[in-house]
Design brief:
With 459 residues, this protein is an alpha+beta fold. It has helices at residues 5-8, 17-36, 51-54, 61-69, 79-92, 107-110, 154-160, 178-188, 192-200, 206-229, 244-254, 265-281, 297-308, 317-334, 339-342, 348-362, 367-379, 397-416, 426-439, 452-455; strands at 11-13, 43-50, 94-95, 103-104, 111-114, 124-131, 137-147, 150-153, 285-287. It contains 20 helices and nine strands. It is globular, with a radius of gyration of 22 Å.
Amino acid sequence: MFLSVFDMFKIGVGPSSSHTMGPMVAGGMFLDLLRRSPFQPKGLRASLHGSLAFTGVGHATDRATVLGLAGFLPATYDTEKADAALAQIHDTRQIGVPGLPPLKFDPATDLQFDFGPALPGHANGMILRATDAQGDVILSETYYSIGGGFVLTAGELAATAEKKARPKANVPYPFETAAEMLAMAKASGKTIAAMKRANELTHRTAADLEAGMNRIWAVMTDCIDRGMAGTGILPGGLKVRRRARGIHEALMAERGLNLTPPHTINDWMSLYAMAVNEENAAGGQVVTAPTNGAAGVVPAVIRYWLDHVPGASRSNLGDFLLTAAAIGGLCKHNASISGAECGCQAEVGSAAAMAAAGLAAVLGGTPEQVENAAEIALEHHLGMTCDPVKGLVQVPCIERNGLGAIKAVSAASLALRGDGIHLVSLDACIETMRQTGRDMHEKYKETSLGGLAVNVPNC
């Protein structure tokens, strides 16, 4: 297994990595497939299944699917160009992309939401089809958006299920479990970040690695700043108002008054996370960490560390991100980071584990303490459902990121108070998350058919 830091932290667009970014990426993949095929397509069709259907409108999946088929990608997304392209497609009922003839596509009839059973491979499934002049299907591919912006074809997903047939990644430290990670750290005398860095350098130069991580943080911290400046009502119909700006102004006004209780530091952590997720809910640029729905936790903890912890140094940011990516990779490889597959424990839970590990690392923790921090954070998210009201990444998602950041910092602090010896291993915790997600009722896994989604008015 090799999951790069740039796999876990992708620059993209809100509101969802699995339901917005994933379908957009799938559209691009299908265009590439069409360009390589011998067929002469005249039209396109798309169908959304499982969670992509149930919460697709709230997650802008319909919009993202059309834009993906029009050649847009999350990393280079431009809102104004996207809006113009959508308007043209609705007017002309046609898509034009380089390398292909004009393709008939009417969003009203050629994009379908299938509210029946999910496709067999994953809860987030979609089928893209090309048709000839008579409307007959000449090429079809099934795609699964498996969380965090990762997309696999049905064939690729089936191949990944054969874990035993896959050789270990050709990197210096090919750990696939936390136990292997700790054993390699002990044998090499290296930190988790140092091992992850060595793995990354087999695929890119040191300069490219540093530049890429600096870019990740720039987008993260810019997102926090935009969120703290934003005002108004979030889109979607719930009439959720942005709160980050008001909280920030109140916290700034209280500074230096000697009247603020110590626990107010929690408000700063929540502020940073909520600012990100308000931006995400508004369709802004965010970084998957490891998903959009959980995008606020890691940036919030980094910002807390840099702005509030004495001795914090921007020069150690890479160690934070590399350590967090290593933990996120273990969660994805051995369980899931998809809310539609394992509930919100896989999203905010994994994000909190990543953030706790990163913070413990930059505060001088040993590999054992870092692993302990990740385990504590994940353990206390186990069983958390994904039940977005009205299918929007707003309630409970925005506040949940704030509480996830607080848990991450608490977990790191507790781990650093110990020596790394603890009863429940991170591997056991990740396996428990996988089993819990498997047993969790489908209505609690990003379908908006259970939990808060049916007990809170949708207007």
